[in-house]
Design brief:
By secondary structure, the protein is an alpha/beta fold. It has a single domain, classed as Aminopeptidase. The protein has eight helices and eight strands, in the order αααβββαβαββαβαβα. It has an eight-stranded mixed beta sheet, with helices on both faces. Strand 3 (about 95-100), helix 4 (about 110-130) and strand 4 form a beta-alpha-beta unit. The longest helix is centred in the middle third of the chain and has 18 residues, at about 110-130. The protein starts with a helix and ends with a helix. The model has no long low-confidence stretch (mean pLDDT about 95).
Amino acid sequence: MNHDNDFLTQRVNDELDQLPSTQAEVLEQHVRILSETERSTLEGRKKAVDYILETLKKDGIAESRIEFQDYGVDGLNRQNIIIHFTAEEGVKDVPKYLIGAHYDTHGQLPGADDNASGVAGLLEIARMLNKIELTDRNIDLIFYDTEELPYFGTKDMGSYIHAESVQDDLDIQMVMVLEMIGYFSGQEGSQEYPIFPMKYVYPDKGNFIAIVSNTSNPFKTRALKEQFQVALSMNDVITVESINAPNFVKGIDFSDHRNYWTFGIPAVMITDTSFYRNKNYHTESDTHETLDYLKMKEVVDATFLSVLSL
């Protein structure tokens, strides 16, 4: 028996009575509105930013918590939105955790899973963090611009701009990037993998959430997976899998977490595995009706509980 997991389970059970939880219907509302907002143009992204800010205001998040990180790309202003949740004054040597999600889309597509789902999850985490007092950690939430092509893999990614700006912050323990977190399938063979042998190690049904990292911080990835396992075991709706693999494995670095690796900052991607499961990826059929919001709620709750427990 793993006594560490017994301890985690008891802690989560104790905390669940005191902590807020995600609302599946709110997740669906966020995804629907964002996926119906064209987010590839500057005007469209402004509408998305306005919706994010309106939601934060409605949820009672003070303007003093919000920072705008402006940067120029193609002669136009782009913007990351950062929400700061800080521990009580006087506490020293406070660890910091970051959670991020990109709000732009690939072309003029709905992008419900990619990545309105991640933004919706981040908005709910912001609402829940605003209802509690942090005593032993600082948490930043970042909404990134310019993740999609033609910016992906370049220094024009919003997450590259942010990662570069925090590279000297030694308090950062981990970055968690929410990248496509709403698509699940219980059908056999619904899950594919970048390397053939992986199908003998991992499930063939796409009914799990994955924690993806490179090979530089396997112990931190494992610790996060253990937290997720405990949180997800409360309802037994989905499971969690993790992988630490070199960057040449296709898909390992396919989101904003890659840019923190560039600066030596531990980072993971929390994902439904994107095109290895969701065939609506980068198509007109990536709509809000295709997502499972009850399972997505489990992912968001697990992320929230984990960032408080690591």
